Amino acid sequence: MRHSFLNLLRQGLSGHRGWPQAWRNPEPRRSYEAVIVGGGGHGLATAYYLAGEHGLTDVAVLERGWIGGGNTGRNTTNVRSDYMYPESAALYDLSLRVYEGLGRELDFNIMLSQRGWLFLIHDLHQMETARHKANWMQCNGIDGVIVDSAEARRMLPALNPAADARYPVIGAFPQRRGGTIRHDAVAWGYARAADRLGVDIIQNCAVEGLVMNGGCVTAVQISRGTIGCGRMGVAAAAWTARVTAMAGFPLPMTSHILQAMVTEPVRRCLDHVVISPATGAYVNQTRKGELVIGGIMDLYQSFSQRGTYPSIEKVVAAVVEMFPAFSSLKLMRHWAGVVDITPDRSPIIGPSPVPNLHLNCGCGTGGFKAIPAGGLLLAHAVATGRQHALAEAFGLERFRLNALVDEAAASGIAH
């Protein structure tokens, strides 16, 4: 133990010169069999599964900034699969099941903590919705039960005990397999594993244009030259629409801000991830003792990655109403991610109007929890040119056919 501490101190003082690189920093080659745009969780997972599951290692991941510097590093780290539509339940439970074994698979600690996701029930209307949801989840084979107010208060000792609370708790809906994961560890784990399989991860490399020939993408114009490609996957969240515009087609998406914040660390007082649907606010406590707080997305469209004080005030007020003891805590920092919202709040996965260009976007506020499934399904589309069975409901065609997977309406709160 003493030797490990001294080595850690020595490396810190030397600028980590003795540590090996987690992944290479290669120069882009003239061409690749497949190019993946987006170096967040979804793009890195896609590259990893292309190499590991499909044997396609001639792959480049293009990231305009740094690995995990977008939404993968700008969320509240929550994972769960308590969805109502069978298509959504299959998608998000696949992700959760992969997450449950991902640390072993990648040989990298992603710090999965299945502390349970607790959905508070405040009135009889929400109780009826929760019962409806529980029935759907049972049909989908997903875990989830309703507990009464006494059990909810046992699980949450700091919950507002006042009889005249603005949002009284009459029960709760926990998914015990839900919880949190270290977000940057997911990006780092996938990046390291993909690199070891031969994938080139190219950072600080913005896509500036596409070269089209015969209706297909044949090359990508980047800030550092031009790269030829045989096929292409785009997993750039809200920025995916900018790339598809270069290919000549729009996407039914809007971009909004989702804010989060963290408090100073305190003694352990919250064992679950807790959300209040009446306010849209949610909170969990990290291993260091900080409270990570989030809320619903801002309604205006933006690509800014900054928070705003009105949203902070609204979310903090909701959390303090649930847990009055938190009112004395200081906020240490806040941030925002840019979420990509489709009309039905469900992702777009699979082929596009351009035959060799495939998409993974539109996950909205559920992007982090969908990373493993998104990567697996996009990798399948890029490698085979066909839609995976689990992704069939999430193709672009659903908007033309009005075959929506409307989880926002079904669940009462989007993702």
State the end-to-end CA separation: 43 Å
**Can you name the CATH architecture of the largest domain?**
3-Layer(bba) Sandwich
For CATH, the homologous superfamily of the largest domain is named as FAD/NAD(P)-binding domain
What is the radius of gyration computed over CA atoms, rounded to a whole number of angstroms?
22 Å
What's the average pLDDT?
A: 92
DSSP strand tally: 18
Give me the strand/helix succession: HEHEEHEHEHEEHEEEEHEEEEHEEEHHH
What is the domain total for the residues? 2
CATH topology of the largest domain: FAD/NAD(P)-binding domain
Helix vs. strand class: alpha/beta
Number of alpha- plus pi-helical segments:
11
The CATH class name of the largest domain reads Alpha Beta
Sheet having the most strands: 8 strands, mixed
What is the helix fraction of residues, given as a range? 25-40%
- How much beta, percentage-wise? 15-25%
In the predicted model, the low-confidence regions spanning at least 5 consecutive residues are 410-415
What best-fitting shape do the alpha-carbon axes yield? globular
